[in-house]
């Protein structure tokens, strides 16, 4: 067994304290921080790397190159170390010390990009580097690679359905590449077309919800499927921070800021639903990679 074999099969937790105000409605959260590198991105990174190796597009002589805001990069770095692959990652220079430190400890190389251009700048820089030397690199291109969403269709969506005892009525989650949301939503709607899907986005182009995109002001990922979105929920950075603190202090779940955004939006959604509804969301990553952020100190 290798570290890659431990990806997936994460628990689906009921948030009983957060949802204590609800009457007859369950709020469930997929604890993706239980993946080996600490985030949901392990699933897509594993699928894309193994797909490259199977197709022989990725060989030990090539360097894995991609853009990241942190989580997919950490997953690539961990798996690259396990598989004996060199990894180069383009990421905004203002990514925090925890994420940069984890990537470096696995032996991957970081190329910092203009922080004002956010994840879009990192994406364009990685794409340009690949196109200048395509023979040198394997470029998974997580924003446009259908294997990303398919990984969640084949694993995350199946697990949520089975672990909920086939009872989910609503799925709500934020989007970075949109792989998790798209793949899980497709799978759940295949199980039951009546399931409603809600896409979470920051309420402003200038936000602090790491790993999520304000779609109207960003480069739209090629794997994003607007047709799978029933409705959209907007969340402020402040509300995401507040719920992230609540998850730690009330549920004992040290999760990241995008997890707080997801749970805040899920709770708001659940307040308007009838008894018997079951709302599922995703705790995307561990809060341990945000410990240097100041929002934890607020009351």
What does this entry show, briefly?
Its EC number is 2.5.1.47. This protein is an alpha/beta fold. Helices cover about 35% and strands about 15% of the residues.
Task: Characterise the protein shown here.
- Helix 2 (about 70-85) links the parallel strand 3 and strand 4.
- Helix 7 packs across helix 8.
- The protein has helices spanning about 40-55, 70-85, 95-105, 120-130, 145-165, 180-190, 235-250, 255-270, and strands at about 10-15, 25-30, 65, 85-90, 110-115, 135-140, 170-175, 195-200, 230-235, 280-285.
- By secondary structure, it is of the alpha/beta class.
- The strands form 2 sheets. The protein has a 6-stranded mixed β-sheet, with helices on both faces. Strands 5-4-3-6 form a 4-stranded parallel β-sheet.
- It has 2 domains: about 5-35 and about 150-295, 3-Layer(aba) Sandwich (Rossmann fold), CATH 3.40.50.1100; about 40-140, Rossmann fold (3-Layer(aba) Sandwich), CATH 3.40.50.1100.
- One of its GO terms (molecular function) is cysteine synthase activity.
- Its EC number is 2.5.1.47.
């Amino acid at each position: 067994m290798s570290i890659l074999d431990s990806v997936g099969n994460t628990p689906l937790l009921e948030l009983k304290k957060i949802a204590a105000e609800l009457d007859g409605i369950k709020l469930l959260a997929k604890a993706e921080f239980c993946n080996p590198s600490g985030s949901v991105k392990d699933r897509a990174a594993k699928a894309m790397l193994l797909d490259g190796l199977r197709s022989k597009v990725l060989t030990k002589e090539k360097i894995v190159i991609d853009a990241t805001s942190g989580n997919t990069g950490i997953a690539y770095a961990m798996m690259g170390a396990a598989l004996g692959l060199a990894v180069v990652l383009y990421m905004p220079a203002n990514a925090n010390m925890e994420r940069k430190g984890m990537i470096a400890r696995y032996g991957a190389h970081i190329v910092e990009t203009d922080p004002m251009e956010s994840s879009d700048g990192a994406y364009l820089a990685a794409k340009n580097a690949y196109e200048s030397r395509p023979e040198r690199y394997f470029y998974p291109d997580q924003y446009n690679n259908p294997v990303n969403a398919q990984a969640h269709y084949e694993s995350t969506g199946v697990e949520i359905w089975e672990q909920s005892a086939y009872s989910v009525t609503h799925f709500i989650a934020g989007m970075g590449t949109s792989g998790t949301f798209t793949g899980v939503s497709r799978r759940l709607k295949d199980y039951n077309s009546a399931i409603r899907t809600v896409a979470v986005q920051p309420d402003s182009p200038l936000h602090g919800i790491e790993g999520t995109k304000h779609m109207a002001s960003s480069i739209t990922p090629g794997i994003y499927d607007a047709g799978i979105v029933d409705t959209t929920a907007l969340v402020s950075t402040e509300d995401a921070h507040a719920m992230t603190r609540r998850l730690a202090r009330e549920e004992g779940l040290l999760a990241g800021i995008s997890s707080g955004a997801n749970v805040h939006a899920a709770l708001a959604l659940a307040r308007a639903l009838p008894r018997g509804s079951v709302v599922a969301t995703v705790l995307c990553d561990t809060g341990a990679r945000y410990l240097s952020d100041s929002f934890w100190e607020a009351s």
